[in-house]
TrEMBL record:
Protein name: EAL domain-containing protein
Annotated signal peptide: 1-15
Limits of the PAC domain: 473-525
Keywords for this protein: Signal
Amino acid sequence: MALLFLLACLAQAGAAPQAPLRVGIYQNAPKVFMNEDGGASGILVDLLREMASAEHWPLEFVACEWQACLDALDAGRIDLLPDMAWSDERAHRYAFHQVPVLHSWSQIYARPGSAIRSLLDLKGRRVAVLAGSVQAQVLPGVLAGYGAVLVPVVSLEQGFAMVGNDQADVVAANHYYGEASAKAHGLEATPVVFNPARLYYAAMPGRQPAVLDAIDRHLGAWRADPDSVYFASLRRWQAAGPAPAVPPALLWTLAATIGLLLSALAVASWLRTEVAARTRALRDNERKLSTILDSVDSLIYIKDAQSRFQYVNGALCRLLNRPAAAILGKTDADLFGPEQARMTRAGDLAVIEGHERYVAEECLNGKLYLTTKIPLVHDEEVHALCGITTDITPRKQAEESLRIAATVFQSAEGMCVLTPDAIIVEANQAFGTLNGCPASELAGAPFPPFSLESDGDDYRERMWDSVRYEQSWQGEVWTRRRDGERYPAWLTVSAVRDANGVLTNFVCTQSDISARKQADEKIVQLAYYDSLTGLPNRRLLYDRVTGCLGRHGRQDHVGALLFLDMDNFKDLNDSRGHVVGDQLLQQVAARLLACVGASDTVARLGGDEFVILLDALGPDEPQARQHAEAVGEKILVALREPFEVGGAVHHASCSIGVTFSTGHEDRLDDLMRRGDLAMYEAKRQGRNTLRLFHPSMEHEVTYRTEIETELRAALLDSQFVLHYQGQVDGDGLLTGAEALVRWQHPTRGLVGPAGFIAIAETSGLILPLGRWVLRTACEQLALWSASAATAHFTIAVNVSVRQFLQRDFVEETLAIVRESGIDPACLKLELTETLMIEGVEETIGKMHALREHGICFSLDDFGTGYSSLSYLKRLPLDQLKIDQSFVRDVLDDPNDASIARSVVALGKSLGLKIIAEGVETEAQRNFLAGIGCDHWQGYLFSRPVDARTLEELAA
């Protein structure tokens, strides 16, 4: 026993005192606040004290403003914060218990006479709102588009004071605080209510789980018991004020009453008889009243202060399909759901707390009801309310129908009502405007005459007969205004009959469709004609060609399509502007129309492309060919005549392609494709000419398509190889090679670059092919650098314009150089003169970027293009290459010899090395050496060979 006593003492001595539960308190009476004595008070404080007493929690209340309370909770300086409204955002940040402490909503408060009835009235207003509160989170979304300005405050007291001092127009607060504080600041509640909310005690996640569980346990028990401390606290704090002291006069009255009661005992026997009789009469009256109330279609009910139903009539039972016993004691939330309950509860509170009659329209189960709620007062306290809810849906629908009918009748559409004899009874102002007179002058007049055609006969009588038989008529008519102006109109007439089928009226609607008809014509013009030239566009051309194909097939006639494209039209646009270009196109269109017959079609497809449809040129193709060529030559001559555009003379020409149609198995797409092919053939033949379609043109296109398809497969199957043509110096030593791509075709054999490079350029396949060539050449250069015999080799790689102008060409090239591990100075990129025309500034920038890493450049085919010396001197070149077209005849053609000398002289003056390609004889080499060229390439030294063979030559 002594040992047990000793252990108990030690345990008690070793137990640490329980840490107090720190609770944040901010000013939000009557829910939570610090009173005048510096102590915590309010509904949520009282309830927490009750829980703390039961759970043995020591409490420590910490006064703070709302935002400071939130910061303290985040920082762990307080453990619990009462009066936290739940929201999705806060649910992710704080820990809440399950059972809400209170239900609340937010309301707008303003000075009396502010005339704020809805959100629309808040436009441009200054709205004071507690910073960090749920109102501050919700209001930006609620007021979006209304132009209200939010004014953050640190406390609700400051917000109400700012409105009272005209520093803000309104303040947003929870209704508990608002009802308690509005009058003290001279404010009143407005009808603007928003954000119903559930209020909780909040903690940080994981910090106070046991406290939150205990709060849920107490709240669950209290809310199930109407006599619990929970409801007692609510009644105490929500009461209007303390009960008045009992006056002495009332005490004397009570004493007198007691005396009278004692006297009444003497006559109690007589009273029992009288009461029994009155009770029977009262019960009879109750039954009668109940019968009357149950037979009324309106919903009649009585609710207590907690909005629980205490009485319901038969109409409400029928609506809910429940007996009265299953409804009494229930709330709107139980019977209609939480959404409906939130709407009706606001009206209940207006009656119970405001002591005033409440009338409003409410929506229930898709119907509209008019609800009147009346306070039931006992001892000057509202203890219940009586509600009468009447279905006004039919009345509202009728009002809406009448409103719509009145609105429609006064709309912009002309309307009138006539007698069965077609005499106007009433017309709206729009109908009077259509007739060119006030609507009042039309009453008693016959319906104005109209016709179906612009100059047709009066159609009124036939129309009235049709309406009497068919009940309605509508159509496009022509009528006149009072001043005689004719205009098109759309007229609709309907017959109106009574319940016995007797015709009582005609109702007419009429609208002026002049603008619509003009718009229709404009739409047709825009849809089928070119806006610049007024010629038929592609759509109308296709329609006419399709129609001609059918006629040609039936009548064995031949037609022709002439595809015309202006030569060098882009140069005119670029040099003199699009306005001048448009003027030229308009004049070209006029000349084309003058060259064809009235039955032919001249269309503009877009840009500088025109198509001419020559219909029915003859019964056979030779005759049609002769006619088409004659028209084409006429057009060529006409367009060669000078044009006056932009205040200057301009000479133009065109290229024409011709294809023929017999209508037999011809398709529109085929004709358009053939005409395009013939036109592009005329372009290739030097422009300013005419070419007739020939099947070989399709064969060429087919061949190019096949080659393109096979090129794609070749890239996937690695069918390309590199050959190398040696380059030698003045001593005849092999210094390097030019990498030349070959296609090892599975069926065509070894194909040289002339057979596929041009197609690769136009199809875009030159990009992956160029990357492969550059990578393969660098890998070969790396192998040569490892051998003493070839370590000094340089390698020249041709780069296409399209490849060089790629945005990432510099980065891609440098990456290949790094991966292969070669010396960048041994790599020479050969560029053509085309780069001097396309993107000069971009080319110079990329060349400098690569030159900084040691990569060299050679200008290939120099002298064959359009090099500008002003650009040439800016390029970081290392070498000029004399094209083989000059080298081939350098011994026989003085012009080629002069060009070669000029290239060498220019290169030397710019400090560049010179190399000549295509050297095939000793005489050519000697001549070139004599003019200063010190490097050569050609069959004299080496044909293009594989890498192994070139290595053997170097050895």
